[in-house]
TrEMBL record:
<dbReference type="InterPro" id="IPR008949">
    <property type="entry name" value="Isoprenoid_synthase_dom_sf"/>
</dbReference>
<feature type="domain" description="Terpene synthase metal-binding">
    <location>
        <begin position="296"/>
        <end position="419"/>
    </location>
</feature>
<dbReference type="Pfam" id="PF01397">
    <property type="entry name" value="Terpene_synth"/>
</dbReference>
<dbReference type="InterPro" id="IPR001906">
    <property type="entry name" value="Terpene_synth_N"/>
</dbReference>
<dbReference type="GO" id="GO:0010333">
    <property type="term" value="F:terpene synthase activity"/>
</dbReference>
<protein>
    <recommendedName>
        <fullName>Terpene synthase N-terminal domain-containing protein</fullName>
    </recommendedName>
</protein>
<dbReference type="InterPro" id="IPR036965">
    <property type="entry name" value="Terpene_synth_N_sf"/>
</dbReference>
<keyword id="KW-0479">Metal-binding</keyword>
<feature type="domain" description="Terpene synthase N-terminal">
    <location>
        <begin position="12"/>
        <end position="155"/>
    </location>
</feature>
<dbReference type="GO" id="GO:0016114">
    <property type="term" value="P:terpenoid biosynthetic process"/>
</dbReference>
<dbReference type="InterPro" id="IPR005630">
    <property type="entry name" value="Terpene_synthase_metal-bd"/>
</dbReference>
<dbReference type="Pfam" id="PF03936">
    <property type="entry name" value="Terpene_synth_C"/>
</dbReference>
<dbReference type="InterPro" id="IPR050148">
    <property type="entry name" value="Terpene_synthase-like"/>
</dbReference>
<dbReference type="InterPro" id="IPR008930">
    <property type="entry name" value="Terpenoid_cyclase/PrenylTrfase"/>
</dbReference>
<keyword id="KW-0460">Magnesium</keyword>
<dbReference type="GO" id="GO:0000287">
    <property type="term" value="F:magnesium ion binding"/>
</dbReference>
<feature type="domain" description="Terpene synthase metal-binding">
    <location>
        <begin position="240"/>
        <end position="293"/>
    </location>
</feature>
């Protein structure tokens, strides 16, 4: 481990020198460096450099947006917009207005320009809603052109897999750490300037793997030492399944303690859910164990009780009423609030007051998870009888709607919630939450398509293989 850290220090020094040089000489090229750094998962080493690169580019773009659009290639424009919006810079999406005006001209100009079409598609994932009509329309047109391009190519075409995965797994909705690196780094040709970043990423990956192995061992020991692990109901639980979420969402290697402690919180949320299945009432649940009692929130308990009432009675609530409780019963608010205090440590009346209501950023993550869970469950049709999903409630409330249309409606709701989350994460102006916390929330949302869209997301297999590899070292 000491050798790894020593090598990291040497390589990091070289990479920072390269980064500073590129920022001073070529602002646009520095953005490609930022993109590469983020895809490699080593941005925690370059926070100041990334901020410097973005600030310089923002000045250039905002000075004359129209001139910037006209004097740069489309992929450069889209990359600039995506990284600046992602970095929290205010940038008007109207720069894409000219792009969407004529579909025929767009096809003639960019129909074969896969790199530019994907760049706009990726930028469109940062939409925050109605203000971004130009961006959304441009993204939709580019996706249509990419699908047309795919249909005219054999699936063995050297770029076909790259296009297909880019359409299915946009960067903003995924965790680069578990994506296929040959796809993730498709447009990055190793050169003298980028080699040091690649090597630094390899060293960082080795360090993180060793840390994760150590953390997984601690988590397993903790669970085996808990009295609840001896209970027949919970004997088959695997602590590493709980650990996956903190491991993926706390990406900075320095957050080791936070990953371990949040795993414990997640485990108890799962236990609460199952204990309701076993005991059915809050009184019996509280009597069962003080450990569970310590993590119950009134909201979570009430949501479980309400859902239990629906299941027992067979009565379907209205969709609005369903979501009111179902979003809470995900337990996401418990986990995200714990993450907040793990990051900020000091608990004050002011910090507690933030969570008196359901903060929008937490609500959005919870809603994305709940709707995705319901949608995937309905598609699988593994459940029999009444399961109380949103789709069932919606179809009962709108009896003229087909199952296919109900699923499309849920997909639209998920898309809308991503836009609200974007607003909270990338355009937060009140500084209610730190960047480290908003990034954690964003990563939690990114875990959802990874876990619930597993048929079209090979990253889940990469995640499982990684967890198995660290489990073998225990």
């Amino acid at each position: 481990m000491d050798i790894l850290y020593a090598n990291q220090t040497v390589m990091l020094k070289e990479a920072k020198q390269v980064m500073k040089k590129v920022i001073s000489e070529d602002p646009m090229e520095s953005l490609y460096m930022v993109d590469l750094i983020q895809r490699l998962g080593i941005e925690h080493h370059f926070q100041e450099d990334i901020e410097a690169a973005l600030e310089k580019q923002h000045f250039i773009v905002s000075t004359d947006p129209i001139d910037f659009f006209q004097s740069h290639q489309l992929d450069n424009v889209a990359l600039s917009f995506r990284l600046l919006r992602q970095g929290g810079y205010s940038l008007n999406a109207d720069i894409f207005e000219r792009l969407k005006k004529n579909k025929v001209q767009l096809r003639e100009a960019y129909g074969e320009d896969v790199k530019s079409l994907i760049a706009v598609h990726e930028a469109a994932q940062l939409s925050i809603g109605e203000e971004d009509i130009s961006l959304e329309d441009s993204g939709r047109l580019c996706r249509e052109l990419l699908h047309s391009w795919l249909q005219s190519r054999h699936h063995h075409h050297h770029e076909a897999q790259y296009v297909a995965i880019s359409l299915q797994q946009p960067l903003h909705h995924n965790l680069p750490r578990f994506m296929d690196k040959t796809i993730l780094l498709r447009n990055f040709k190793p050169d003298k300037e980028s080699v040091c970043f690649m090597e630094l990423a390899e060293i960082n990956s080795s360090i993180v793997r060793l840390m994760n192995q150590h953390e997984a061992l601690q988590v397993s020991k903790w669970w085996k030492g808990e009295a609840m692990s001896k209970e027949p109901t919970f004997g088959g639980y695997e602590a590493l399944k709980w650990y996956m979420w903190p491991m993926a969402c706390f990406t900075d290697p320095s957050f080791s303690e936070q990953r371990i402690e949040l795993t414990k919180c997640i485990s108890l949320v799962y236990l609460i859910d199952d204990l309701f299945d076993v005991y059915g009432t809050l009184d019996q649940l509280i009597l069962f164990t003080d450990a569970v009692k310590s993590v119950i929130w009134i909201r979570l308990s009430n949501a479980f009780l309400e859902e239990r009432h629906w299941l027992n009675s067979g009565e379907l609530p209205k969709t609005e009423e369903y979501l009111k409780h179902a979003v809470v019963s995900t337990g996401v608010h418990v986990v995200l609030v714990h993450a907040f205090f793990l990051l900020h440590q000091n608990i004050t009346h002011k910090s507690l007051a933030i969570f008196d209501d359901f903060p929008n950023i937490i609500y959005s993550v919870a809603k994305i998870l709940r709707l995705s869970d319901d949608l995937e469950g309905y598609k699988n049709k593994n459940e029999t009888g009444f399961d109380g999903s949103y789709i069932e409630c919606y179809m009962r409330e709108h009896q003229e709607v087909s199952a296919e249309d109900a699923q499309k409606h849920v997909e639209e709701l998920i898309s809308m919630e991503w836009k609200r989350l974007n607003r909270q994460v990338v355009l937060s102006t009140d500084h209610q939450f730190s960047s480290s916390y908003t990034k954690f929330c964003l990563n939690a949302a990114r875990m959802v398509p990874l876990m619930y869209h597993y048929r079209t997301n090979p990253s889940l297999s990469n995640l499982h293989q990684y967890v198995k590899s660290i489990a073998k070292c225990q």
